[in-house]
Structure formats: C-alpha cells, structure tokens
Amino acid sequence: MNAWLDRMGISSGGTTYKAFREQATRLSTCRLVFVKPHDRDPRKTVNRRDQLVDGTIALQEGDSRQSSLWVETVRLSDTFWSELRKEPVVIWDGAVRVLAEKSHALDIYCWLAHRLHTLESPVGVDWKSLHAQFGASYKNLRQFKPRFIDSLNEALATYEDAKVVLEDRGLVLHPSRPPLRITAG
C-alpha cells in the first residue's frame, strides 16, 4: 500500500489512512449488478447482484509499538474475479494520479479504458444513457451535459489513444488502443 501511495504522490499517514479506511469500508459493502447474456437465449440478459470482495478490506491493528497495517490479501468475490478475468480493465497509474481529485473524470476514464479497446466497430451512446450511468447527482440532462463534457475532456487528456467523438445526440466511441499496453515477459 505504501509503494502505491508513493507512486500516486500521496503522503502516507494518519489522515490518508483514515480516508483509505473509510473507502475500504465502502468498497467492502459495495454491491454491483453484473449483466450477462442469458444461457439459453442470447437476446436476453440476466442481472446478478454481487459484492466486489468476500469479507472486508480493513486495517489490522498492530501491537502498541507498531502502527496499523493493511491486510496483505483480499479475496475478491467469485463473480467479480470471473468478470475481471474475462474482461480486464487496464488503467494507467499516471491517469489516476492526474484525475485523483476529479472523481467524475476518473469514472469516465475507467469506463473508456474498459469499453474502447473491446470495440470492433463504432458505437453510439446517447445522452439519456450517459445521464443514467454518470449523472445520478443531476436531476436533469440540461445540468448534466456541460459537466459531463468537462469531465470527458479531462479524461481524454489522460487517455491519448481514446477515439471519442462528441455529437449532438451523445458520443460515438471508436475502437481504440487500451490506455496502457501490457507486454509479455
């Protein structure tokens, strides 16, 4: 954890660990909906709700001479692990560092990192769908659009190979290289 905090340019210490402890609690209780094709009818989907992790992500309390330590392992839920293995999302630490204080832009960056490299042809995403996915804190589309466009531009500034076209109806996503290329070896 300390090495990752160093790479992110985040000082380790009391307030950082308090914030990480709170976020770890949120992640431990987070439930996702995994949408999968139906086994017998590929035109239908099945939604499955599951957690990210089995158990919790927590700090272990050390003895009185030692500060708290992060648990060294976390067991991911079987569903989440299976999805990660099928469709891994590769993100660049540098983008996380740049977007660390811009959660909306970071969400968009992660979404683009997941979607763009798997596309075989351009795909349109309308404003209504974007609002449903990224605009929970905005009552209407009129308020959401300018904020989304600003955050999209911040995300795209960290994902140079992303091919995204902004149109009146929404976005057109084009097949793109992943933001970080993994080499074997």
Give a short synopsis of this structure.
The chain is an alpha+beta fold.
Helix content: 40-55%
Residue windows where pLDDT falls under 50 for at least 5 positions = none
Count of discrete domains = 2
Main pleated-sheet profile: 3 strands, antiparallel
Number of helices: 7
Question: Kindly, what is the distance between the CA atoms of the first and last residues, rounded to a whole number of angstroms?
Answer: 24 Å
Average pLDDT over all residues = 81
Structural overview:
With 185 residues, this protein is α+β, with helices and mostly antiparallel strands. The protein contains 7 helices and 9 strands; from the N terminus they run ααββββββαααβααββ. It has helices at 2-8, 14-29, 78-86, 93-98, 103-115, 127-134, 141-158, and strands at 31-37, 45-51, 53-54, 59-60, 69-70, 75-76, 123-126, 163-167, 170-174. The longest helix has 18 residues, at 141-158. It starts with a helix and ends in an 11-residue tail after the last strand. The relative contact order is 0.12. The mean pLDDT is 81.
Write the layout of secondary structure elements.
Blueprint: H1 2-8, H2 14-29, E1 31-37, E2 45-51, E3 53-54, E4 59-60, E5 69-70, E6 75-76, H3 78-86, H4 93-98, H5 103-115, E7 123-126, H6 127-134, H7 141-158, E8 163-167, E9 170-174
Antiparallel strand pairs: 1-2, 3-6, 4-5, 7-9, 8-9
Helix pairs in contact: 5-7, 6-7
Q: What would the keywords be for this entry?
A:
185 residues, alpha+beta, Ribosomal Protein S8, Chain: A, domain 1, three-stranded antiparallel beta sheet, 42% helix, globular
